[in-house]
Each structure stands twice: as structure tokens, then as C-alpha cells.
Design brief:
The protein is of the alpha+beta class. It has one domain. Helix content is 29%, strand content 7%. The protein contains three helices and two strands, in the order αααββ. The protein has a two-stranded antiparallel ribbon with strand order 1-2. Strand 1 and strand 2 form a beta hairpin. The longest helix is centred in the middle third of the chain and has 12 residues. The N and C termini lie far apart (34 Å).
Length: 82
């Protein structure tokens, strides 16, 4: 699957569940169940596929774009310490 195809899969993600709904204070069992169902159905990015490009702020200032790391091993770990 190419990057544009993966990006197309995720372009409406915000519409499905707004970021204001998907956080610690508003997390519901329904969100977890929905995530598990989508994982079992094989939705999302498969291991070895290219992730959609994004930019994120760095703790030391500035930003980092995922595509700038192309060709290097990258582990994306999204989680919470709470």
C-alpha cells in the first residue's frame, strides 16, 4: 500500500472521533472496544507499511517531520504515562 492510500484511509479519522473526545478525561470503554474491532478487522497501517507523513513539536523547540527520517529505523509509540 502506498503512502497516498494510507493517508486516504486516515483522512477522515478526525471526523470519526474528534481529538477532544479521545483523551484521558473522556475515554470510554466504547473507544477501546472500537479500537480492538478495527484492529481485528485489519484496518489501519499494517506492519512494514509506510505511515502517513506528519509533523510534531519537539520538546527542545522546533518540529520534526516523519518524512525527514525516511530510510532510518523509526518506532512510533503513542501512549500515555497517566
Amino acid at each position: 500500500m502506498s503512502v497516498p492510500e494510507v493517508a486516504r484511509q486516515f483522512k477522515n479519522l478526525e471526523e470519526r472521533l474528534g481529538s477532544d473526545e479521545y483523551n484521558f478525561n473522556h475515554f470510554r470503554t466504547a473507544h477501546l472496544v472500537g479500537d480492538v474491532k478495527r484492529t481485528i478487522a485489519g484496518e489501519g497501517i499494517k506492519p512494514g507499511e509506510l505511515a502517513p507523513d506528519f509533523e510534531m513539536p519537539l520538546a527542545r523547540g522546533g518540529t520534526l517531520r516523519l518524512s525527514s527520517l525516511r530510510g532510518k529505523p523509526v518506532l512510533l509509540h503513542f501512549g500515555s504515562i497517566s
